[in-house]
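Researcher: I need the complex structure. Ligand is KG4. Inputs:
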Amino acid sequence: MNKYLLILAVDTSCDDTSAAVLRGDTVLSNIIASQTELHRPYGGVFPTVAKQAHKENIEPTVKTALKRASIALGNKTKLTINNIDALAVTVGPGLAPALEVGLNFMKDLAIKSQKPLIAINHIEGHALSALAQRNHSLKKNDTLDTKNSRQLEKLIESNKKKISDNSNNTNINYPVLSIVVSGGHTEFILFNKIGEYQILGSSIDDAAGECLDKIGRMLNLGYPAGPIMEKFAHLGNPKAIDFPLPMTTTKSFDMSFSGLKTFSRNYIEDHFGDTSLNQQQTYDFCASAQYGVFRHIMYKLSKVLEKYDVAEIWLGGGVAANVNLRKMIRETIKNTGKKVSNSDTKNPKLSKQKAKIIFRTPFTKRLCMDNAAMIGLVASYKFERKEFVSDLEELERSPRLI
Ligand code: KG4
Ligand code: ZN
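Model: Output:
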């Protein structure tokens, strides 16, 4: 991958308008205009509200992404569309009215700027998000106080030095198993090459994040419930309620979460009826439900690892932000008898040790949730393969990964 390549990417697949600029695999900016507050009263994403908000947010979001990237690069002149090498946009899967806003905006921009456009699958974005690199000097560029000019100058200078010896093309060991756990998808994706994927298994009904959100709704946790459930789970006992382990009699790597949702509803009805759970009961329920959902994923993951000798495991998607999920994956890897390593450092001591699996996670929570940086990351690989949209007029939504 060309590490100096500048990509401007946009994602409007669901309820967040996001724009990002990447330089090779390094994230220079990753702006997310969240609509969570708008959808909260509905307890889920309301498509027409999402479409309207995307329309209002897209232009300012793109402008902010370019502005923040200029600061990150330390350029005296402002980064404009003319400096960008290629544009990237999510074409699916997602909400049709929401996707169309991003698609139309980027088609227009491609025509006006005469820049190549790259069509990206949202799940591929989550699947590769762990590869995105931090722009070391400006880690906190999202909250940077641009009025503090001395601080800014200092950061820009140190950033320039880092950029001049930028050597961050990740060395990937194959086969890779990417686990995508989000509000819309739960998938095991195996590959020996970026761009050529085999889906080993996926949820046949609700996604894991969706299941956590629905159980959270029964407990009145608010929307989205996943992150709140994680907080409450830390205060509860994961063994308090014995959730069933689904799909143990089938050999497939597919998963099913709707039974866990039904179990929750029945349990609450049977044990609490019309009375609401007290605080500790809520914590215990959250801990047990979260454990139940992750235990199911771990059961299937251990079966995948029995069959396939993978060199790396990558985690992506909103639920990937969950510390407990990451911990359980590390334990599952260890149970295979292999060592877990967080990087591919060519440390001779490490390579002499017993077989290991490299476990990569996105470097920040912003890369777990829906965001455009992961879309730009995939685009930088597709740019190498010259996978550009050949006919902009013909470009449509497309939900398929393979
Ligand atoms: O990837 P994402 O932002 O959107 C989709 O593509 O679906 O994922 C959103 C999902 C929601 O279900 C949300 O509850 C869940 O990710 N989530 C979490 C956490 N943060 C977000 N679930 C568990 N623990 C978290 N910390
Ligand atoms: Zn997503």
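Model: Summary of the prediction. The chain is about 40% helix and 15% strand.
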